Amino acid sequence: MKSIVCDVLLRNATIVDGSGETPYIADVGVKDGRILDIGKFNATKAGFVLDCTGLVACPGFVDIHGHSELEALRTGYMHGKLAQGVTTEVAGNCGVGVYPLGSGEAAIQTARILSRDVLGDYDGPWSWRSFDDFAGVLARRGSGTNIAFLQPHSPLRCAAMEGNPNRAATPPEIDRMVRLLEQSLDEGCVGFSSGLYYAPALFADHDELVALLSAVAGKGKFFAVHHRCEGNDVLSSLQEVLDLAKETHVRLEVSHLKAIGRKNQGKVPRMLRMIEEYRDAGVDVLFDQYPYEYGSTSLFSLLPPEYLRLTRDVLQERLRAPEDRAAMRSAMEHPDGWDSIYELCGWDDISVVSLDSAPQYEGMSFTRIAEARSQDPFDAFFDLLAQERGAAVMVDITQTEESLRMIMRHPLGCFGTDALYSGGRCHPRSWAGAVHLLGRYWRQEAVLPLEQTIRRMTYEPAKRLGLNDRGLLKTENRADIVVFDPRTIQDNATVSEPTALNTGIELVLVNGIPAYRKGSFTDELAGQVLLL
């Protein structure tokens, strides 16, 4: 038996290597941030040794859909991700982001307002202008996890368009956007994201999208999209982005695939067939999913699109005007060509997660809030948004468990958390999404075998990103490793206690360095900014 010298030694682990192949028992030796050996060997010297008998060792989880760019600047430690075994994240999703910035304080304030509900705020100096600047700031501060970045759509519009970006862009403005996008892709962004549901990206027309996606395809990178409608018009909305991918030959990642509203759950099989049909026709399309039947986003996104054109100050004035309230209510009750979460879910199933100006309502549905205020739910909603200057985030029950499992079983899907860290509270997925998938949908319900579940969380997203040395346990790969107890793995986070630590995560290594051990964080900034 050969002998090795290593920094970390995992003894007698059940190896689920990320490939989808059958698990096996072996030791893992780690040296200088990489996997030195997997097998049976003598370690003549090891700095950290863990007996993994009865435990699973697998690659660190790769979160293909995150929003942690400002969270990484605020704390750097990334506790929410490490506590669930995520060692690599892709940030900059849904078209929401903070780079590039235009010049001047006004550009910074616009970026802060547009990103606050999803990304939160950052009180440090906004000293960057380009993506390269931003990546440099983060690299100097350090991160507890590895982070790759997409170039979001909304800051491109803000930087390239004169005045209010909540309108169609002119041809010269589209050209400026393309140049800025190509610069970010050359500087290391892994792709481009848009949130066609959110202002200002929802005002992008076909010509703008074709120009931007053609640039992405020309750089060999991918397009991640929160498409326009996930509710009543989900089929035509999905077809729009599939047709764009077909026209431009861009690789397409459909973000957090789902159908919103109980009446729309019957459309899920057709959605999956559409993706299969386009893929069979040569379109490189895949999708990701977070493992919850309820979602989370900005409370302001409940408003009709024509009001999302307005700046926050003007919008809040309109929220106080009786005639505008009546028009907003009518549009929310009878939407035409857009997703009204109210119409799809109802006030009973829409709850406040974070409301900086009225934290006493956090965790309550709007039905309960209205009762507490002795108001109609619409009036309570309008009043709260009219006074909100900080983060306003909700959770909403969007789909059935049956649909969630159907999407989860599909071979073209992979895992993402869609975690938000924008307020005092968050969706439980922000601290527990990966463990919820393992604890409920593998250990309790066996929706997929363990080796396939792990593959969707590791190798599959790493392959989509082009991370050739992560997502798979093999020699010479980066030593991003999670060790967990398959008998006890379970999430404990809830809407009321979203940061409760998970059960069963024994060890998390990031680039070979212990970052989390049985409920304790080492606060090592062992992650890397991944430029591709």
Q: Can you describe this structure in just a few lines?
A:
By secondary structure, the protein is of the alpha/beta class. The protein has helices spanning 69-74, 79-82, 105-119, 131-141, 153-160, 171-186, 206-218, 234-248, 268-280, 305-308, 312-320, 322-333, 341-345, 366-373, 377-387, 401-409, 429-444, 450-457, 459-465, and strands at residues 3-15, 24-31, 34-39, 42-51, 56-59, 61-63, 86-91, 146-152, 191-195, 222-226, 251-254, 285-289, 294-298, 350-355, 392-397, 413-415, 481-484, 505-510, 513-517, 520-521, 529-530.
Task: Kindly describe this structure.
The model has no long low-confidence stretch (mean pLDDT 95). Helix 11 (312-320) packs antiparallel against helix 15 (377-387) and helix 17 runs antiparallel to helix 18. The protein has helices spanning 69-74, 79-82, 105-119, 131-141, 153-160, 171-186, 206-218, 234-248, 268-280, 305-308, 312-320, 322-333, 341-345, 366-373, 377-387, 401-409, 429-444, 450-457, 459-465; strands spanning 3-15, 24-31, 34-39, 42-51, 56-59, 61-63, 86-91, 146-152, 191-195, 222-226, 251-254, 285-289, 294-298, 350-355, 392-397, 413-415, 481-484, 505-510, 513-517, 520-521, 529-530. The chain has 19 helices and 21 strands. The chain has 532 residues and is of the alpha/beta class. It has three domains: 3-58 and 473-488 and 502-524, Urease, subunit C, domain 1; 61-293 and 398-427, Metal-dependent hydrolases (TIM Barrel, Alpha-Beta Barrel), CATH 3.20.20; 303-393, no CATH class. Strands 1, 2, 3, 4, 5, 17, 18, 19 and 20 form a nine-stranded mixed β-sheet that branches. Strands 6, 7, 8, 9, 10, 11, 12, 16 and 21 form a nine-stranded parallel β-sheet that branches. The longest helix has 16 residues, at 171-186.
